[in-house]
Amino acid sequence: MSCCPHCRDANSFFGQRDAAQRLARYQRRGPEGTTRLLVEALCAAGVTDATLLDIGGGVGVVHHELLRAGAARAVDIDASTAYLATARTESQRQGHADQVTYVHGDFVALAATVAPATVVILDRVVCCYPAMAALVAVAAARAERRLGLVYPHDAWWVRLGMRLLNTGLALQRTSFRVFCHPTAAVDAQIRQAGLTQRLRRTRGMWQVVIYERTGAPGP
Asked: How many whole angstroms separate alpha carbon 35 and alpha carbon 58?
């Protein structure tokens, strides 16, 4: 395991109770909101026989759905031990446990040991990581064909909301913080890695964005 201080904070913040609630909601309703949009967009682009790298995969909603849609295998790297355990249990329930490898740690610190994948996923992860450039650069570099992200767009009211949320977190005496990284900076970092934006949709404070490697073959 390799974790930065922020990831250790995330491990404490995203605990077993939160994981259980998220899994129960997924089992009742399936993917929701922007996660559903992300899954639908990736499936529309084609995931048959794809390999997946799900960074900060939570309870595994995205990789569960893409494996059911025909992806071959997945790696889920998460700072939360509770999320990983819950995602692993759900993989067993869905019958694809042998197709997923679960790794606990900080993806940026572990990146040199992580193989590239057909599709790389960052679903509401960029907003939970302070070093955006490092995270996005290594994620984009590992994307052989596509990179799918859900993260906040940097409207003034989103930035204000993030500041208020962080104030609340400080009052609760937790060290975990959230971030509204500039959209232009995220986009530039990904384009530097040779990917081109193919889709962008917004819902409330969130944006769902799909990038594709220029000249990449279809699935």
From this structure: 11
Distance of alpha carbon 106 from alpha carbon 11, whole angstroms: 10
99's tokens: 């197709």
90, two tokens: 């759900």
Identify the pLDDT of residue 1.
44
One of 3.50.50.60, 3.40.50.150, 3.20.20.70, 3.40.1350.10 is the CATH number of 5-213, namely 3.40.50.150
Could you tell me which of 65, 67, 58 has the C-alpha nearest to residue 39? 65
Contact between 78 and 84 (Cβ < 8 Å): yes
What pLDDT digit, counting tens, does each position of 92-110 carry? 999 999 999 999 999 999 9
Report which of 90, 91, 87 is spatially closest to residue 79, judged by C-alpha positions.
87
